Amino acid sequence: MRSPILGLRASSVIFALVCLGHLVRLWARWEVHVGPVEFGPVASIITVVITALLSVWLWSLSAAKGSGQL
Length: 70
Fold this sequence. Notes:
Blueprint: H1 3-28, E1 32-34, E2 37-39, H2 41-67
Antiparallel strand pairs: 1-2
Helix pairs in contact: 1-2
């Protein structure tokens, strides 16, 4: 069944888009305020690292699952 592979790849692409959005935020130096709290660039740096790792991990899982290695 190919639906688990499709799900892993779709999740990987979503995490990659979130990572790209935070990279744009860092590059453009946009500020994020939620109520009285300001989220600085450190929050985006952490998010870039986490989402990039998740994206690569999920994509590699989908490739391994597709080739029968799991």
